[in-house]
Specification:
Radius of gyration: 23 Å
Strand order of the largest sheet: 1-4
Number of strands: 4
Strand content: under 5%
Number of helices: 13
Structural class: mainly alpha
Mean pLDDT: 76
Helix content: 55-70%
């Protein structure tokens, strides 16, 4: 939800952090749930703890690799096999079906499907996106956006209808105080847990950054912390998986956990969600000249060069005494990487990955594809 109120052009780094963290959090929760389910926690020992860590790493790494392999396979098929070339319908269908195929394989092997699809999408956006025609780019962009919007509507409808199911509430009707207490404890744990991870990890991340604009400011940290407080469908799904066996329950403790989870989801979504936009306006006010700049930009996928403002400040360059705006797209920042792990990954990407799987600057010219004269800019 917070990605709706955050503007990708105004705060690209913050948008990426909030969106990526939200998806990874959901995926990690599923992986943790599956890892815990396979162990008997009544007798915890060092051996069980090590096995749990190993099982978690196996699920996490396997889900990630499956998504990466599916994305690379998709890019290679569209780049090398030209039966889909010139056909927007076929190219869009291949991209959608391959992403769904990664989800199905993850479920088949009892991995985290959310994590698999997430990394499959990252790889597809880096390679496959540049292998298809311009019309396919526009089509897939709006198709995925529409499907995502419709899926979110169904999720909120389901949560709302599930909250109106009186059977679960009837089971705990004689202990309303306990229900409120459990819900409050869960919400408090979420608040403390978010703070315990966001602020220390942001501090560690800032220690590795030299440029000031690359660091995560305190106001941005507060926004990230607040954005993750809203719970959603994954929390309800895991609660049902654990405490509901046959579509209903007459056990008070099971009904208590399910209703408490629903209460936390509804409260965090409605209350925290309504407060998110005003909070962002207070903490991260938009620069006055940003609206004018964004309104003059093309909104098609061709517009890679978008102005990037860091807290409303422009970077002054001594050539001609002109103010040159930083690019808003994080991909534009890859043209001048530092000598870190990212630098060597970029070299591998330029030397091997993009020539084999396609990508910006490595796509052969064919009619209907991105223009050939734009290709040399990204090499």
């Amino acid at each position: 939800m917070v990605t709706i109120v955050l503007n990708q052009d105004e705060t690209p780094l913050l948008y990426s952090l909030v969106f990526g963290e939200g998806v990874v959090n959901d995926a990690t929760s599923v992986v943790l749930f599956n890892a815990i389910q396979s162990f008997d926690l009544s007798n915890i020992s060092t051996t069980i703890a090590l096995q749990f860590v190993g099982n978690f790493l196996y699920l996490f790494i396997s889900s990630t690799l499956l998504g990466v392999l599916a994305g690379l396979l998709n890019a290679f098929i569209i780049k090398k096999l030209y039966f889909g070339r010139h056909s927007t319908d076929r190219e869009a269908a291949i991209m959608i079906l391959m992403a769904y195929l990664s989800y199905m394989f993850a479920e088949l092997f009892y991995l985290s499907a959310i994590l698999t699809v997430f990394f499959c999408g990252i790889v597809m956006s880096h390679y496959t996106w540049h292998n298809v025609t311009e019309s396919s780019r526009v089509t897939t962009k709006h198709a995925f956006a529409t499907l995502s919007f419709v899926a979110e509507i169904f999720i909120f409808l389901y949560v709302g209808m599930d909250a109106l199911d009186v059977e679960k509430w009837r089971v705990i009707s004689d202990t309303p105080g306990k229900s409120v207490g459990v819900s409050s404890i869960l919400l408090g744990l979420i608040l403390v847990g978010r703070a315990a991870f966001v602020f220390p990890l942001s501090f560690v991340s800032n220690l590795t950054k030299k440029a000031q604009y690359e660091k995560i400011g305190f106001k941005q940290q507060v926004t990230i912390w607040w954005a993750g407080l809203m719970r959603g469908a994954v929390s309800i799904a895991l609660a049902y998986n654990q405490f509901l066996g046959f579509g209903h329950t007459q056990l008070q403790r099971n009904a208590l956990m399910i209703t408490s989870t629903i209460t936390v989801v509804l409260f965090s979504t409605v209350v925290f969600g309504l407060m998110t936009k005003p909070l962002i306006r207070i903490l991260l006010p938009s620069p006055k000249n940003l609206t004018r700049i964004l309104s003059s930009e093309p909104s098609t996928p061709k517009s890679f060069i978008v102005p990037f403002l860091d807290n409303g400040q422009e970077s002054e360059v001594g050539q001609g005494k002109r103010n040159i705006l930083r690019p808003s797209s994080l991909r534009m920042l890859l043209t001048t990487p530092s000598h870190t792990v990212h630098y060597y990954c970029r070299k591998l990407d330029d030397a091997f990955m993009r020539p084999v799987f396609g990508g910006r600057g490595f796509v052969p010219f064919v009619p209907g594809s991105p223009t050939e004269q734009n290709g040399h800019q990204w090499q």
